[in-house]
Every structure is written in structure tokens, then in C-alpha cells.
Amino acid sequence: MGADPIFLSDDPSAQRFDAHCRRVAAWTVELARARQLNTDEIKSLERAALLHHNLLAVLQGDAREHFLSDLGVHEVETEPAPGGRHEILEIANALDEHFEWEPFSDHSENDVNPAAAAALDCLRCAGEADLQSALRRLPVFPVAAQKALALLTRDDWNAYDLRVVASADQVLASEMIRAANSWAFAPLQPIMTLPHAITYIGADHASKILLAASLKPLFASPKLGEIWNHALEASEAAQCIAKLSGRVHPEQAFLAGLVHDIGRLAMALLPPEFQRRSARLLEKGCELMLVERALCGSSHAELGAAALRQWGFPDTLIDAVRFHHEPDLSDSALASVLYLAERCTNPWEDLPSIVRRTAAMNRLGLQHEALSSVDRSSKLDGLRYSR
Ligand SMILES: [Fe+2]
Ligand SMILES: [Fe+2]
Q: At what angle do helices 194-201 and 170-181 cross, to 10 degrees?
């Protein structure tokens, strides 16, 4: 997840403008590094990129001071970018404008303008072979999760079946007991056994905990723990949106929420240069989807769909994950649920898009105010990885 941007204004259009300048600066730095410019040249270009719309000309007083200190700029550079280096700034700007206009384009390869294409060529550090290799090296889908899914996709499961599946795996059983003892369920006396945990929290909640706990080991590394914690929040938001809409089964939305960003597991297996570049770009406030597409020509949505196909998931879930950042390109109502859940829980993964948001709301028959009632409190906090 990237750093939260600090905005100068509450005005959304000013915020978008500010975010654009910061992203152009981030692309510029990476392009300059790829072309092996020296540190002073890179810093000078970064400053020129940050100020390339001459935002300072319209800022006065505290806002101007805040802007400069936030950027770490003390002496305002008024001269243009260093001689011969203008092209880097121009192609960085073209790349960002390409991404900003992408929701409005017809998605054909030809609509990438030559300057943006030059930036993409220079930034690309992982190709199709790396993506396929990452997918091959994904962990085996957990046996406990296979059993949980096989059970919960039946119509006739009951509390005893949950107990049988959970008790076959010691880690799963202890996760369920721990989740039942978490603040969300707040028992007066500690819960010590699996039957007591299931009885206390009820079969419906227990089934969700079983599913989540069985998938949690896939994210068992410090780097992936944050992604898992977001998946827990997204799964509950997705379930809530599905209930509001009435057009998607809430349990299906919950499962989709848990696996919606599973492609990031594969992204974490791409080569070290990809990891270094993406960490720097995210740190500077570039959105995840833009970084992925710039550096490897794919996204965690595409890789997630490929991973789920590899693990034998049904097409409805695969399609929803594939289009969870582009619901306007799919007929899947579940993709729209995931898009809105993503916007509610981690809007920094992608640029905001009124086109996509409206398409998702229309597909689900929701009014714009509906999202304000999405419950963001989590009953699954006991399953989070600690930071
Ligand atoms: Fe995502
Ligand atoms: Fe996400």
C-alpha cells in the first residue's frame, strides 16, 4: 500500500491535480534512474516535475509554505529542467495522462501515445516469462481451505460439519477459538474449545471464520500480512454491499472479498528490480494498479484471475477478480461489488473514476448515498496479522 498523500486542499479537483504532479515526479525519478542520470540531475528533474504546472504561482501564504516544506523544497527553482533532460519529464507526464484517461479510452493497444509508450518501454522490468514463472511458484492452495470451500458451497451444511472440518487442522481450530475470543464477540468467560466457539458465535459467523482462517496461511509473511488485513476488511464490505444490492449472494461476496487481491501474492514473486521500483513508486504516492501496469504490463487483478483458475475456482469468481478494478468492462455484478468494496476500504489501489463507480452502482441498483451505510467495523479482527 502506498503512503497516504497529504493534500493541500479539500477540493477534489485540486487534490487530483496535486496527485498528478506527485505521480509525474515519481515516474520522472524512475525514468531518470533507468537512464542512469546522476543524483543531482535526478533531484533537479524531480523538483521540475513537482512544479511542472507551476502550482506555486497560484498558492499564497501558508498553503505555499506547506506545499514547499511537504516537498522538502526550500529554494524555488524557476528555470526549466536541465538541458537535454526535458524529454524525461515530457514522457513521464504523457504516461500519467495516459493512465488518467484510461477509463475513457476504448482500451485498444493503439491508443497509447508514442510518448507514453516510450515511458512504458523504459520502466518495464518484468515480462510475460516472469509473470508465468511467478504463477508457477505460487503456494499450493491450502487443503483446509479446499475442504472449507467444498463444505460451504453445499446447501445442507451445519454446525457439526464446521466442527469436523476445523478440528482436522490444529492451526485452523486454534484460529477459530482465537477469533471467537476477539473483542468483536466479547465472551464473559474465555472460550477454550471448538464446539464452544461455534455454539457461542453461531454457525453463520463460524463459517466465515473457518473460510478466512483457512485462507490466512497464504499471506503468512510480514510483507503480505498487510494485504491479508485489507482482504478481511474488503470481504466484510463486499458482503454488506451485496446485501444492500440484493443482486449478489452475500456469502459469495464475502469469499470474493477474501481473494480479490490474491494476485498480489504472484506480484510479490516477480524479480527484485520490480520489487525495488514498485516500492519506490508506491512510497511516492503512485497508485498500485498504475505501478503494476507500468512495470510489468499486467495487474494483480489479471494475475489473481490466473491464480484462481490454476486453483480450480469457478468462472464467476475468476471474472469478478479479473475485473474488480474495471467493473465497466464486465457483466459481472460481483465485480461491481468488489470494485465498490475496494473503494470503501483501500481507495489508493487505483485512480478514482466516476465512470466506473457509476457503472458499478447502476449494475447493483444502488443510489450514491448507499455506500455511506457500508459497515466498516470488522468482526474478524481476531484473524488479522499484527503490524
Ligand atoms: Fe485490488
Ligand atoms: Fe484490494
A: 40
Domain range list for the chain: 12-123, 143-383
CA of 260 to the centre of ligand 2 (A): 6
What's the CA-to-centroid distance between 349 and ligand 1, angstroms? Answer: 6
Concatenating the DSSP letter of every residue in 334-355 gives: HHHHHHHHHHHH-GGGS---HH
Mean predicted confidence (pLDDT) in 79-103: 81
Return the closest-CA partner of residue 384 out of 239, 228, 257: 228
Instruction: Kindly give the distance from the C-alpha atom of residue 261 to the centroid of ligand 2, in angstroms, as a whole number.
Output: 5
pTM assigned to the model: 0.88
What ligand is nearest to the CA atom of residue 347? 2
Neighbours of ion ligand 2 (CB under 5 A): 261, 342, 346
Helix, strand, coil percentages in the chain from 3-state DSSP, rounded to 5:
70, 0, 30
Q: What is the band of 371 on the pLDDT scale with cuts at 50, 70, 90?
A: confident
Cα(347) to ligand 1 centroid in Å equals 9
Q: Which ligand is nearest to the CA of 301?
A: 1
In percent, the amount of the chain with pLDDT more than 90 equals 68
Q: What is the mean pLDDT of residues 376-384?
A: 79
The reported pLDDT for the residue numbered 4 is 46
b/e 203-226 (16+ beta carbons within 10 angstroms → b)? bebbbbbbbbbbbbbbbeeeebbb
Judged by its nearest atom, the ligand closest to the C-alpha of residue 230 is 2
CA of 157 to the centre of ligand 1 (A): 31
Between the CA of 167 and the centroid of ligand 2 the distance, in Å, is 31
Q: pLDDT (tens digit, 9 = 90+) per residue, 332-370?
A: 999 999 999 999 999 999 999 999 999 999 999 999 888
For the stretch 153-177, pLDDT in tens is 888 999 999 999 999 999 889 988 9
Domain 143-383, CATH among 3.40.630.10, 3.30.450.20, 3.90.1640.30, 1.10.3210.10: 1.10.3210.10
**Positive or negative, the Cα torsion across 310, 315, 318, 322?**
positive
Beta carbons within 8 Å of 283's beta carbon, 6+ residues apart: 2, 3
